[in-house]
Amino acid sequence: MGVPHGTSERTTLGEWALPARCMVVPLQWAMNRDEGRWGEDAGEFRPERFIKEGKEGEVKVEEPTHFLPFQVMAQVFPLLESSHRIAQNLI
Question: Is the pTM of this model over 0.70?
Answer without folding.
Answer: no
